[in-house]
Amino acid sequence: MQQGTGCRIGNYVTIAEDAVIGNNVTIGNNVTIYPRVTIGDNCIVMDGSVLGRLPLRTPVQNLDVISAYEPLTIASGCVIGCNCVVYTGVTMNENAAIHDLSVVREHSVLAEDVVLARGVYLQPETLIGARSRVMDLVELPGPMLVEADVFIAPGVTMANDANGYLTRFHLHEPHLLKGPTIRRFAMIGPNVTLLPGVEIGEGAHIAAGAVVTKDAPAWTVMAGIPAKPLREVSAEWREKILDYGKKLDTLS
Question: In this model, does residue 30 exceed pLDDT 70?
Fold first, then answer.
């Protein structure tokens, strides 16, 4: 193990021989760190978390997985809460945060300043853009893309299989799975349902409890079951958000 200076490591911690730990890293009790994990400077990993977990498959599962250790990269300033599981092959960029009881599956990417709240589940190949927020008890059913500056409220439900009736019996090709796409500045309200493959346009606002069965136009408020356009986001709000985005883009 390669370890920097100023680190604090708790009790009953297991760390693979090839792991790399930066400076001023705090690791809580009962943490397991598997091979090919790199943790950047000033990160915090809290009690009971598992980093670099292998995906495993039983014969009854539909999807194939590769059970091989790949690089898990956790950039500087990241925080991982208690009892989280981050699989092998994940990338966490600077200052990303995963809170208690969340799971991030293989080949997912968290851009800088992303926050996953408690009990969030990212399935394989989920990409989360910078500064996006995913709140409590949400599952993102990759492969899917969430662009920068998106807000996903608690209890949102998403799906990735438009042919689940057949897929569950191995009667449909699983490679056709596709979760929703959520464009920049969109806001998904509490307890919304997004069906497979739908696209939520830039700046769209999906009202609480809506069921989205078709693409949501940019800068449009959608509501209802099934969701339909209610009105456009006000020009004043749109202008403020776009100006905010331009400032962020200038800084990056």
Answer: yes
